[in-house]
Design brief:
The chain is built from one helix and 27 strands. It is mainly beta and about 350 residues long. The chain has two domains: about 240 residues, no CATH class; about 100 residues, Immunoglobulin-like, CATH 2.60.40. Strands 1, 3, 5, 6, 10, 11, 13, 14, 16 and 18 form a ten-stranded parallel beta sheet that branches. The chain has a six-stranded parallel beta sheet with strand order 2-4-7-12-15-17, with no helix packed on it. β19 and β20 form a beta hairpin. The relative contact order is 0.13.
Length: about 350
């Protein structure tokens, strides 16, 4: 037993784990009583020396064009005494709630017909190496009142060379629905996001929330903790109880921060027209005589060339503040990295397209 304890102490003291930060962001500090909204870079990665949210401080993020998760990497400690907020936002009657970074916004309530912001399934790998956010709830405008769907919670990785301490709160839950009891739309609440924490020591007595909107446990996201000292995180509150009691928690020793290449989906062409290589959202306007349904070719990169992933195209129309989307299309990576997805447009209406992949 003495040898085992000595070996563990040596492992914790040695700089064996590299979270992947080069410190180029410098220190990320939110002082007590203040709110800081950080604009995410295109890859969503913050490479800090250390990260601190003081008591009463709130840290939020401006979603980037690619709608990536938030990757917080630190050479030193990450300490959350205040609030780190990537939660989905509540819906209103006409507008779906906005998603947290890496999630999907809720469906609109101002359009006739059920606006399905939710894919048929979202599968995250148990270790959350491929981070995904929560999906938005449906919106419905068929009858009074209009009902927007709640936004999905975001996706977050916190990785530190040394320690992650949560004494405050990490909010990654789904947004509440405008009509939570609307009989024709029981899926209006947003789904919770997913959180992964990696460090030699993960501890604290704070709270992590990945519940679905309106407190729905069955729509909660997942928490994954990888650490060398499992006993240290037992004081954390996860969705109202001990982490192990939730059914949405896993832990292990996969001491890896983010993957070397982050999975991404990029639109290669629309209606046979090639899209610029460095594009983010793609702008499309059909003429009055063009067929309403056009093929959109999407390329997936950053995943091993095996297995199946789900791909969809989100469509943001002019004047609308949230997206409608195609159903998921499955892509077998062993046969190629592109998939063709038919998308229906409204003629003479400016539309922006983005593509997302869900491992």
């Amino acid at each position: 037993m003495i040898l085992m304890l000595s070996s563990l102490s040596a492992a914790l003291a040695a700089p064996d784990f590299d979270a992947g930060s080069d410190g180029s962001y410098g220190p990320l500090l939110v002082t007590a009583g203040n709110t800081l909204q950080v604009t995410l870079p295109p890859d969503g990665v913050i490479r800090a020396t250390d990260i601190t949210v003081e008591t009463g401080g709130v840290l939020r993020f401006q979603t980037n064009t690619n709608n990536t998760p938030v990757y917080l990497l630190a050479q030193g400690d990450i300490r959350i005494d205040g609030t780190l907020d990537i939660a989905g936002r509540p819906a209103t009657a006409d507008v779906g709630g906005f998603a947290g970074p890496g999630g999907w916004s809720g469906g609109a309530g101002a359009q006739t017909g059920n606006i399905d912001a939710r894919p048929k399934s979202v599968n995250a790998d148990p270790e959350l190496l491929h981070l995904v956010g929560g999906v938005g709830g449906n919106g419905d405008g068929d009858a009074f009142p209009n009902c927007g769907g709640g936004g999905g919670g975001g996706a977050l990785l916190m990785a530190s060379d040394t320690r992650v301490t949560i004494a405050g709160a990490v909010l990654a839950g789904g947004g509440s629905a405008q009509c939570p009891d609307f009989l024709n739309d029981p899926g209006a609440a947003g789904y919770g996001g997913n959180v992964r924490i990696v460090a030699p020591v993960v501890d604290g007595s704070g709270a992590i929330d990945t519940l679905g909107g309106d407190g729905l446990v069955q729509r909660a996201g997942y928490l994954r903790i990888d650490t060398l000292l499992p006993a240290a995180y037992t004081g954390l509150d996860f969705n109202g109880g001990p982490p192990g009691a939730s059914g949405r928690f896993s832990s292990g020793y996969t001491m890896m921060g983010m993957l070397p290449v982050v999975p991404q989906a990029r639109i290669l062409s629309v209606a046979g027209q090639t899209v610029a290589t460095e594009s983010g959202a793609v702008s499309v306007t059909l003429g009055s005589g063009d067929p309403r349904t056009q093929d959109v070719v999407v390329q997936v990169t950053g995943l091993q060339p095996s297995g199946t992933v789900s791909v969809r195209v989100e469509q943001w129309k002019s004047g609308m503040s949230n997206a409608t989307a195609t159903d998921l299309m499955n892509l077998d990576l062993s046969t190629g990295d592109t998939v063709t997805i038919p998308v229906t447009f409204e003629p003479l209406t400016a539309t922006w397209l983005t593509a997302v992949v869900r491992p």
